[in-house]
């Protein structure tokens, strides 16, 4: 997905999804949309996305649910990608490196 496509998708979803209630979100709405696209394109779960975006797993899960509903309301489908194994391997290595850092928010067995 190009930057332009992501911007257009964010603009389409923003009127319904970029609402402020309670504490301000840690991630911008554009970052939330990007996380949702990654979730749908490469089947990343909430926990690795939370690590990548510096968010909590719970907040990421809520973000994914909200944005999936918005996509459905707007009849927008994000198909799964046929991702080269090297890209997924690099992404998995990044998540693992972030979760094994001493200041990581998510406790692991590293």
UniProtKB/TrEMBL annotation:
Chain intervals with Polar residues compositional bias: 1-10
Region (Disordered): 1-26
Domain of life of the source: Bacteria
Name of the protein in question: Transposase family protein
């Amino acid at each position: 997905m190009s930057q332009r496509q992501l911007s257009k998708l964010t603009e389409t979803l923003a009127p319904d999804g970029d609402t402020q209630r309670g504490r301000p979100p840690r991630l911008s709405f554009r970052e939330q949309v990007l996380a949702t696209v990654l979730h749908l394109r490469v089947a990343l779960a909430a926990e690795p996305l939370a690590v990548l975006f510096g968010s909590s797993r719970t907040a990421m899960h809520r973000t994914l649910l909200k944005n999936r509903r918005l996509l459905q309301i707007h009849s927008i489908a994000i198909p799964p990608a046929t991702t080269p194994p090297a890209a997924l391997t690099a992404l998995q290595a990044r998540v693992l490196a972030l979760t094994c850092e001493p200041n990581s928010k998510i406790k692991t067995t590293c």
